[in-house]
Amino acid sequence: MIKGTYTAIVTPFTAGGAVDYDVFKKLIEFQIEGGVDGIVPVGTTGESPTLSVDEHLKVIATTVEVCKGAVQVIAGTGANSTSEAIELTKHAAEIGVDATLQVTPYYNKPSSQGLFEHFSAVAEVGVPVVLYNVPGRSGKEIPVDVVARLAENPKIVAIKEAAGSVDRVSAILDRCDITVVSGDDSLALPMMVVGGKGVISVASNIIPSEVSNMINAASSGDWEKAREIHSKYYRLFAGMFVDTNPVPVKAAMAMMGMIEEEYRLPMCSMTDALKDTVRDILVSSGVIKEDS
Predict the structure, then answer these.
(1) Cα separation values, 172 from 74, 143, 194, Å
(2) Which of 156, 189, 194, 255 could form a disulfide with 230 if both were Cys (CB 3.0 to 4.6 A apart)?
(3) Is the pTM of this model over 0.90?
(4) SS (H, E, C) the chain
């Protein structure tokens, strides 16, 4: 069952540009202590496009190793080549993930039938599939009628909605029985109001307990508590997207002393002005002190 708070975890790098697995393990432990329900490695936030295949698989393996079944692991194994997505998914299955996150094939913009056949082929690997609808990144939306067809496959269990539309969540749930989780922290609560079951979160990289508390409150019907948490951290939720994800969240984590602020090109550091914006949001949200 896909339900609750899943952290789309960052991939930390050393000053020399290598994946910092020691820091990565500490980040995962911080998430588990924060009460999240799962970890999503090598997704958009994990800068998967810049990792080699070997690194990609090692990050997944490290995640499974540290989680030890305490929380779920939903590994990003999507690609715009169906054969590549299948190969990555097979490796992830051997590693022992609970599910995989399958992004809409990007750049080549397949037809509706192409999308259906792509996701269906990946599902044949046998690992539960979470569809990832993110047209702002992929250039292609998964049409609701395609989602409904795919939902008939027992291995396609959920969809991460990052299209910025609460109405689309209602449209999906009106058409089929599939779990919907938000791909945007700021829309997690509104999406849960209409039937969503949680969030794959960027902000939980820095405030896992708070995001988990919000989602748990909404799940139990304590909408007032959920709304209070949403309101308190709304600026932070939105602030993680003042620049291209994951640049703002990695900058924030560096300000908090959690990681070194390192990226791989073409991702690079924000302007000083945007860093000041992120710092101001962290201070006003109570995440760091003004003199930190």
Answers:
(1) 22, 9, 11
(2) 189
(3) yes
(4) CCCEEEEECCCCECCCCCECHHHHHHHHHHHHHCCCCEEECCCCCCCHHHCCHHHHHHHHHHHHHHHCCCCEEEEECCCCCHHHHHHHHHHHHHHCCCEEEEECCCCCCCCHHHHHHHHHHHHCCCCCEEEEECHHHHCCCCCHHHHHHHCCCCCEEEEEECCCCHHHHHHHHHHCCCEEEECCHHHHHHHHHCCCCEEEECHHHCCHHHHHHHHHHHHCCCHHHHHHHHHHHHHHHHHCCCCCCCHHHHHHHHHCCCCCCCCCCCCCCCCHHHHHHHHHHHHHCCCCCCCC
CA distance 285 to 78: 34
Q: Which of 62, 54, 120 is nearest to 88 (CA)?
A: 54
Which position among 160, 197, 250, 275 bears the catalytic label?
Answer: 160
132 is a catalytic site residue: yes
Instruction: Map out the domains of the chain as residue ranges.
Output: 4-222
Q: Tokens representing 257? A: 């002393």
φ, ψ of residue 163 to 5 degrees: the values are -100, 0
Neighbouring-strand partners of residue 5: 199
Distance CA 221, CA 225 (A): 9
pLDDT digits (tens, 9 = 90+) for 161-218: 999 999 999 999 999 999 999 999 999 999 999 999 999 999 999 999 999 999 999 9
What CA–CA distance (Å, rounded) separates 7 from 50? Answer: 19
Record: fold of 4-222? TIM Barrel (3.20.20)
First and final CA of the chain: distance in angstroms?
A: 40
What pLDDT score was predicted for residue 277? 97
Contact present, 36 and 69 (Cβ < 8 Å) = no
